[in-house]
Amino acid sequence: MPLRFTKMHGLGNDYVYISLFDQTVPDPAALAPRISNRHRGVGSDGLILIAPPDDPQADLRMIMFNADGSRAQMCGNGIRCVAKLAYERGLARHNPLRVATDAGVLTLDLTLENRGHVTAVRVDMGAPILDPRRIPVALPGEQIVGAPLPLPQRILAVTCVSTGNPHAVFFEADLARVPLTQWGPLIERHPLFPERINVHFVQVLARDRVKMITWERGAGPTQACGTGASAVCVASVLNGLTDRTITAELPGGQLQLEWNEATNHVFMTGPAEEVFTGVWPM
Question: What whole-number distance in Å separates Cα of residue 39 and Cα of residue 41?
């Protein structure tokens, strides 16, 4: 039976969304690479399923697969789109909205215009994980901040944070000089990262502003990464480079981040956009 889908993006980080409230997907891991293919499929950074909640604390559930078919715990840009789609389609009409993910249940505050149109979403990303055993990173210590990471012909300084997904953050003076497509896959599959890792290069512009580019685990270069921008906010503070509230400039646009000192939670605010709907033949 054909599957109804919606393509959406958060700052160009695009996914195909399928509701499981009235449909079934027998093998989403196999479907993800086919539907994500930019030449022979819909074209996306991955597949996200919106399902009834399996947790009494949640209004719905988000299930995510990367473009290569691997399972991902969470996506900051993706969850904003989940909230917009669920609210506007009537799958869950709460505000704030609580979404169960593989990284836990997250709370999302929706900015609404007339007739229930969602224009922005503020996500409580929870407390960042800094323990290398939980990220995971095969390095000793309580935190990985500015640790040496050997690459062929160069050693980089890495800061590691998990905000639902594992992230490796590197600070560079000039992003234009970073060979992302060369370093990205080497770092993603570096032996220090047993579950692979998302890779971010960051240029600090001011105490309240950074610029970043991303190599996403299982997807490659992406226009934006919400969990990554959240990790960059934490890494920037840990390295003493920025304040706790920043604007992150990504190739696809801007995100507002705050690492709240009182709660230890990271908050991310940004847009979500619907591109088109369609039917995928099965």
Answer: 6
